[in-house]
Design goal:
It is a single chain. This protein is of the alpha+beta class. Helices cover 23% and strands 27% of the residues. The chain is built from 5 helices and 9 strands. Strands 1, 2, 3, 4, 5, 6, 7, 8 and 9 form a 9-stranded mixed beta sheet that branches. Strand 2 and strand 3 form a beta hairpin. The longest helix is centred in the middle third of the chain and has 15 residues. The radius of gyration is 17 Å and the shape is globular. The chain starts with a strand and ends in a 16-residue tail after the last helix.
Length: 203
């Protein structure tokens, strides 16, 4: 197993990998490969934290990070980072490769001076890396009213005390927002795949 920084020659293969990893998982089809594609030209994209994981010289995993902020209640704008999508080819899922990518990239992010990282995902999975509910730290996701718990929104301090005494709101970078028609236009560049409605999808 080898983890290294992604290079432009990897882009097409990684986008296809991301498509394979997310196809029909959360919705019919997926948009994650398009999100990744757009971020490469987005000023929020952190190129030095875009990693591929190789097994026997084949790229089987990828993770990307973007710049983000906490808008604090006292008017400060606190820089943090957010990661995702993280993608593992379906045939290699459940073997710990995602764990290796996350741990490696968090270590690198810490060495770069990034004070905290946000993620939107499954608490049961991300708690093992030290992520906690954002609301437990006084940081709330902009898509959810403050009085409501949002367990899917989590934060991990990479610098101890970085968000101490900070309360405020987090909003996903604009690069994560997509238009369905734009996704479909991008997706025709890839081999045809059937969109299916499956149990457990978010919609």
């Amino acid at each position: 197993m080898n983890i290294r920084c992604e290079v432009p020659q990897d882009y097409r293969e990684v986008e296809n990998l991301t498509r394979e990893a997310f196809w029909n998982v959360y919705r019919p089809g997926c948009s994650e490969h398009y999100i990744l594609h757009r971020f490469r030209n987005d000023p929020d994209f952190i190129e030095s934290l875009s990693f591929v994981l190789e097994e026997e010289d084949r790229i089987i995993g990828h993770i990307m990070y973007a710049r983000a902020f906490v808008d604090s209640d006292d008017g400060q704008r606190i820089p943090i980072a957010v990661f995702g999508p993280i993608s593992i080819l379906p045939a290699y899922q459940g073997r710990g490769y995602g764990t290796e990518l996350i741990r490696h990239s968090l270590t690198k992010a810490s060495s770069m001076g990034i004070g905290a990282v946000a993620i939107t995902g499954n608490p049961d999975y991300y708690q093992r890396f030290g992520f906690v509910s954002g609301s437990s730290m006084g940081i709330h996701h902009s898509a959810v009213p403050r009085e409501e718990e949002a367990p899917f929104f989590m934060i991990k301090e990479l610098t101890e005390g970085y968000l101490e005494n900070i309360t405020g709101t987090y909003k996903d970078p604009a690069g994560y927002q997509t238009d369905e028609l734009d996704v479909d236009s991008f997706d025709i560049r890839f081999p045809p795949k059937e969109k299916r409605v499956l149990p457990g999808q978010l919609g």
